Amino acid sequence: MSDDRLLVVGGGQAGTQLVSSARELGWDGPITLIGQEPHAPYSRPPLSKAFLKGEASLDSLALRTAAFYAEQDIGLVLGERVERLELTGGGAGTAAAVSGRRWTFDRLVLATGARPRQLPLDGAGLDGVLVLRDVRDARTLARRLDGVTDLVVLGGGFVGLEVAATVSAAGVRATVVEAAPALMARVLSPVTARVVEAAHRAAGIRVLTGERPARLLGKDGAVAGVELEGGEQLPAQLVLVGVGAQPRDELARTAGLHCDNGVVVDAYSRASDGYTIAVGDCANLPDPSPASSPAARLRLESVDNAIEQAKAAASVLVGGQQPYRSVPWFWSDQGTIKIQIAGLARADDVVVVRPDARPGRSTVLRYRDERLVAVECVNSPADFLVVRKALASGTSLAPEAAADVSRPLKAHLAESQLGNGVTTG
Predict the structure, then answer these.
(1) What's the rounded Cα separation, in Å, for the pair 329 and 327?
(2) Cα-trace Rg, the chain
(3) For the whole prediction, is pTM greater than 0.90?
(4) 179 with 117: CB under 8 angstroms?
(5) For residues 121 and 218, what is the distance between their CA atoms, to the nearest angstrom?
(6) Percent of residues in the chain assigned helix, strand, coil, to nearest 5
(7) Do 13 and 303 contact (CB within 8 A), yes or no?
(8) Contact between residue 335 and residue 48 where contact means Cβ atoms under 8 Å apart
(9) C-alpha angle with apex 22: 16 to 26, nearest 5 degrees?
């Protein structure tokens, strides 16, 4: 039995998973989880879909029940923003909140997440220019949509496209403006991006790629539209800015921890002091992919990473010695299409397309140095599951076999695992 006090700052997916896993794995000292929002930790992906449509309540999104925190003897502190840390060595220290409350800890976990990136444009401060990160944002967006006929989304990423699909289905004219030549260009191959764009266009959404906003237009203090650099003016009563997120690493900086696009951690999620743990969206970590370069680092904003990294970090807290390794994966439900991605791709990867005669479906495999490194699926969950499993086991598949659609991917990969002329490792 230990009296060591574990303090977790950040009541999102990563922080909640960490306290759950720490208790499950044997941390028997006091655990305190501090969340800045007044709500118990909840799932965020539905905010842009079911919650926005009124089909899900905040209670239904709760990650754990109140009974769980009580049964696990986890102190849940809500509505407190920790603004300062003092580390006294060996992982111990004190945290101070804006309210004046203080907590003393023996080990500290930072799960402070990320905030929406701001748009440095004239008019960005107009009423009706919104972001979507938390339940308060989602409630504001849902309330403000009443009576709106035109909404412009700036940024063709996950959240922006999900919102565009949701509001379009409700009768709002939605326009997506993306500066890159393709939607979701950071994570999708051009082939898959075209499938996604076609689906959104078919649903009535106007998609403008390779276009940049020049300024936001206003009338009587409220947003009235968006002017593009080419001069076109798009009418809008609401503008949603979805141009990425920035890590909330200010707290780590107050403690003198090394930060560079997030809290820099090692493969055990330990920050530069060797003790403090950082997990989830706020952490800059070594690429956990099985075949990654030892020097590759990244910040992963995904539910999967928040869960898996938190589990691995919890094991470190109770004495585990295994580095965090995982095949990152992502999903996005956008109207009638489900996008699933496993593995991390680069722009110069070789792309192998598996043609699918069924409309709205697509499977694309990505290769680097002739090795399978990622898969992108649109409305093809069966392909996604088998390839994700193959990536996790280190199984590759010859590109010419992957392109052969006379057999399902499952059959090809099963043959690969038997070593019939394919690579494994």
Answers:
(1) 6
(2) 23
(3) yes
(4) no
(5) 12
(6) 25, 30, 45
(7) yes
(8) no
(9) 155
SS (H, E, C) 238-261: EEEECCCEEECCHHHHHCCCCECC
The β-bridge partners of 353 are 364
What tokens does 191 get? 């082939």
What confidence score (pLDDT) does residue 24 get?
98
Tokens describing residue 88:
């006294």
The two structure tokens encoding residue 96: 């101070």
In this structure, are residues 290 and 388 in contact, taking their beta carbons and an 8 Å threshold?
Answer: no
CB neighbours (10 Å) of residue 195?
Answer: 23
Query: What are residue 217's phi and psi, to 5 degrees?
Result: -90, 145
Burial pattern 382-400, b for ≥16 Cβ within 10 A else e, equals ebbbbbbebbeeebbbbbe
Cα–Cα distances (Å) from 184 to 158, 225, 271, 274, 363, in that order, read 7, 23, 31, 36, 16
Q: What is the pLDDT of residues 133-159, one digit of tens each?
A: 999 999 999 999 999 999 999 999 999
- pLDDT higher than 50, residue 423: no
